[in-house]
Amino acid sequence: MSASLPTRRNLPRPPGAPTKPVRGYAAGVSRKKPAKTPRTGTPKAKATQPATKAAPAAEAPEAADAAPVGPRPVRLTVAAALAAVEGLVLVGFGVYVLIMGLAGDPESPQQAETLGVTVLALALLPLLAARGLWLRRRWSRGPAMITQLMALPVAWTLVQNGGGLIIIGLLTAIAAVTVLGMLINPTATEALGIGPRDA
User: Fold this and answer.
1) Nearest Cα to 137, choosing from 26, 74, 81, 62?
2) CA 112, 114, 118, 120 torsion-angle sign
């Protein structure tokens, strides 16, 4: 039998020699990380709760802006018609002043043009209010009342000028007071969807 030569592994380790750390995992331990199990149940239920709460909040403005159900009261119809007439009168007066400023021979064409444009811009308020009252929108009550309050000083000024303007001033005052009375009436406020606290 031939004697085997000593190898590096078979050589005896001298006493006191440092031992090399063993790398790797212990026997029976896998190097693969355990797979994460998906969470189900409670988190998904919590995620759906904000969506269900946001749905009624989104529907609230639409419900508030929707027109009330039922026939339109006569008072509200008359108020819308008078507001529309006031707006059309302002439009006609604004167009007349604007044409006179452009084609006529006023003392100050620039002032006449500015006055015509201003009157046309003011005519939008009663026209929008009249449309809102006709469609029974609750926001239309405010602009309609503001228009009538602005018409009262104008009517007083027309009456003070005398002549044929007295009749125009009286008609303007009567229309303004009539619309204000109809818009304050509980029947009109209920038709617009305005409660006692909102009025």
Assistant:
1) 62
2) positive
